[in-house]
Specification:
It contains 7 helices and 11 strands. By secondary structure, the protein is an alpha+beta fold. The structure holds adenosine-5'-diphosphate (ADP) and magnesium ion.
Length: 220
């Protein structure tokens, strides 16, 4: 758990990113089961529910994420299950409710992150999502500000680059969309020095676009 005033929720983080022109799967906060169902009905199914708390950093680790919910009954059940697993894992945590968002189609999973280096200041990281980044540490870094040219190079630098080009029948990821997203994140970070850490993990990349499905911002 982190100090609650420093961690922005996914809903708050995505709202800031959206305002900065960074594509996100928009999430809405529901403070009750009833609200979660009515937001889902408005949004259209399938939806995803996630715990919303400034004290829960890794939502899925403790049963805080329910994917692919196709009707109101499933949403109601998911709401109760999320709350009870989180209360068990973090008995002290204050829970705002759940975020509701559309279930995104599968894409190539990539991540973009920002952390601050004591010498160089904000540094952006790019890599493929999932185990490739965790186990193989197949990532590239650039110091902010990251130009379009830097973004181009940092994407091509990772060993997993062929995966982005489309591998064994898998759809390719739009490299121009990823370059644009990285430059926008760099500009966002530059304009907001109060951001200590940022994580877009994962971003789903498609042949024509790239969208962040999860976002986390930590303030100084
Ligand atoms: P956390 O990283 O806090 O555990 P995430 O929001 O990243 O939680 O959700 C966990 C996983 O669920 C993601 O890595 C992604 O594969 C999947 N996921 C999350 N949100 C969506 C969404 N809107 N559409 C499709 N899949 C999603
Ligand atoms: Mg995540």
């Amino acid at each position: 758990m982190v100090k609650s005033q420093n961690l922005l929720t996914e809903v708050e983080s995505k709202a800031l990113l959206k305002k900065a022109g960074i594509p996100v799967v928009e999430a809405k906060l529901a403070r009750s089961k009833k609200e979660a169902i009515s937001i889902s009905n408005e949004m259209g199914f399938p939806v995803v529910l996630k715990v919303s708390s400034t004290e829960v950093v890794h939502k899925s680790d403790s049963g805080g994420v329910k994917l692919g919910l196709t009707n109101a009954t499933q949403v109601g059940k998911a709401y109760s299950e999320i709350l009870s697993s989180i209360k068990q894992a973090y008995p002290q945590a204050q829970i705002d409710g759940v975020s509701v968002q559309p279930m995104a189609a599968p894409g190539v999973e990539v991540i973009v992150g920002m952390s601050k280096d004591p010498q160089f200041g904000p540094v952006l990281m790019f890599g493929l999502g999932g185990i490739l980044v965790e186990v193989l540490k197949d990532v590239s870094f650039r110091i902010v500000p990251v130009t379009a040219r830097d973004a181009k190079a940092m994407i091509r630098e990772i060993k997993g680059y062929p995966v982005l080009e489309g591998y064994r029948g898998q759809e390719p990821a739009s490299i121009p969309a990823l370059e644009k997203l990285i430059v926008k994140v760099s500009q966002f970070v530059e304009k907001n020095p109060q951001i200590r850490e940022l994580d877009l993990n994962p971003i789903f990349a498609y042949p024509d676009k790239a969208v962040a499905v999860d976002a986390r911002i930590i303030l100084e």
